């Protein structure tokens, strides 16, 4: 039988705690669960009230992996769920609202992906996201160069951007918005991507055509679409090592000179949270910082 622990009064079954999920470092499932418990405070703030898509990799990043959007079979009845619109009719998705449900979800071995809207207002985005994806031989160094341009461009529209690593190869920019239809946010983000490609034609592309990507940074605006999701801050990623989608300072972005400089592993995050006094993305939760998009 799987061991059972009590988390905030809830019984949570945990399984295969000694199983190595990241062979490159020997990082085990037990360590995955410990990591998520360590970052639960800031992570839960980023997950709360956002319907979750789980990217599962129960045998590690080299094994089978798959997305789960509907409520998984066997979900405890105390895990909250929410109804969300779909083109084929309403569906129910998981809401991770507390430590117990976080530990239950983490035991499934998952990345956490969220939309840019809350379950209370589907398709009304309260976030803008821009995903900067480098095409080799471009690296996160080039992503940082593009991020700095986008930061200044967003500031011209009164929008304050914050940065985090994707936990994979690139960088995400986030900004807090007053509730805005997802389609409108997507259109605005596409305009930004087009402007960036015109300002830096040798460095940036805004089209998804893979043959155009080598050596350039793809500015992906599409994750603002209502049906799309983005890896949440502090989620682990299914990579050879337990990399994290980690918030970073603009000073770190400005000073990035090497492809490995902004790569953070699970064991790094406790010290980073302590060093920076908490979540670098906390301003995203301040209603006073939310801004409307400029008029079309």
UniProtKB/TrEMBL annotation:
Residues 28-275 form the DNA ligase D polymerase domain. The keyword Ligase applies. Signal peptide: none annotated. Keywords: Ligase. InterPro entries: LigD_pol_dom, MtLigD_Pol-like, NHEJ_LigD. The keyword Metal-binding does not apply. One of its GO terms (molecular function) is ligase activity. It holds the Pfam family LigD_Prim-Pol. This is ATP-dependent DNA ligase.
């Amino acid at each position: 039988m799987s061991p059972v622990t009590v988390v905030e009064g809830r019984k949570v079954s945990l399984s295969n705690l000694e199983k190595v999920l990241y062979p490159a470092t020997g990082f085990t499932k037990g360590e995955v669960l410990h990591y998520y418990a360590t970052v639960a405070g800031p992570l839960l703030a980023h997950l709360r009230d956002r319907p979750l898509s789980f990217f599962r990799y129960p045998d590690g990043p080299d094994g089978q992996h798959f997305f789960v959007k509907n409520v998984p079979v066997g979900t405890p009845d105390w895990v909250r769920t929410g109804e969300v619109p779909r083109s084929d009719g309403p569906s129910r998705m998981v809401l991770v609202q507390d430590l117990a449900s976080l530990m239950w979800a983490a035991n499934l071995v998952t990345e956490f992906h969220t939309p840019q809207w809350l379950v209370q207002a589907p398709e009304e985005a309260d976030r803008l996201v821009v995903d900067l994806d480098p095409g080799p031989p471009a690296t996160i160094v080039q992503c940082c160069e593009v991020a700095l341009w986008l930061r200044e461009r967003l500031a011209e529209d009164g929008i304050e951007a914050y940065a985090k690593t994707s936990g994979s190869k690139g960088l995400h920019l986030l900004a807090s918005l007053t509730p805005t239809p997802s389609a409108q946010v997507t259109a605005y983000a596409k305009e930004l991507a087009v402007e960036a490609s015109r300002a830096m034609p040798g460095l940036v592309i805004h089209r998804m055509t893979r043959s155009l990507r080598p050596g350039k940074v793809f500015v992906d605006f599409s994750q603002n679409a209502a049906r799309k999701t983005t890896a949440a801050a502090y989620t682990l990623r299914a990579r050879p090592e337990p990399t994290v989608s980690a918030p970073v300072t603009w000073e770190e972005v400005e000073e990035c000179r090497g492809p490995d400089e902004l790569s953070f592993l699970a064991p790094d995050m406790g010290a980073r949270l302590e060093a920076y006094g908490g979540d670098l993305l906390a301003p995203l939760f301040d209603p006073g910082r939310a801004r409307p998009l400029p008029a079309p």
